[in-house]
């Protein structure tokens, strides 16, 4: 009895230690993600009243800014983010693949040092430096016009976030897989697509996510690098709309409504890309194996059946 109580106390103490380990992360997520999300949802889905101007708006009026103009901004932000992400993938993947086969550790460390250097400096300083470089090359200020400069800025800012997950996986790629593929008659190009890319699928998805989502909702890059009047993306539009949100409840409600719509668009895209295909694969597997209609025995049931079988065998041997 005492041993049982002692074991129970030890297990309880260990469980509490695990809770303390996850508590800081949970608190940060709660304060920096859950609470702001609730504030945005509440601000968008309730009537607003501006004390200074005396103006008010209903919930429907909060969403009046979600019009064709916002849809065009979302579409423009999306295709620019997709093009930028594709360029990052094309630049980072071959380079990481080459670096994975380099034997010199000094060379690898030096290259990683320079490849991740943009992460070390301030976002704003990098933008100012890139804009100044373009102006110096052109010989005059205000020389950057066009979405191409927005794409260059996104690639420059987020390329390290594509490089790091790919390199982390590729350095552990078993080289004998590639050699075996070549021994079986595949050339280097075929081995790359049949062996390397499937091996790095998770890293590719991570890199795409780390570049596509920040590029889609980026703020300040178009404002700095594209001097056209219609250069802003959806992130800049929401920022400008809610710039006065602390003083004006109307601005907070309108910017929150657009932010909520954008979040729903991203969630819908994620569902179409990840959740629905994954759910369909699970359902298809269960339908194929027949486990969808028949309950599978759990681990405890299997152990109980195994123990009963062994016990029956021992009793039979004794008899």
Automatic annotation (TrEMBL):
Residue span, ABC transmembrane type-1 domain: 74-273
Chief localization: membrane
CC per GO annotation: plasma membrane
Subcellular location as annotated: Cell membrane
Gene3D superfamilies found in the cross-reference section: MetI-like
GO BP, one annotated term: transmembrane transport
Protein's membrane topology: Multi-pass membrane protein
Transmembrane parts of this sequence: 21-45, 78-99, 111-128, 148-171, 192-216, 257-276
Keywords of the record: Cell membrane, Membrane, Transmembrane, Transmembrane helix, Transport
Family: Belongs to the binding-protein-dependent transport system permease family. CysTW subfamily.
Name of the molecule in the record: ABC transmembrane type-1 domain-containing protein
Species: Mycoplasma amphoriforme A39
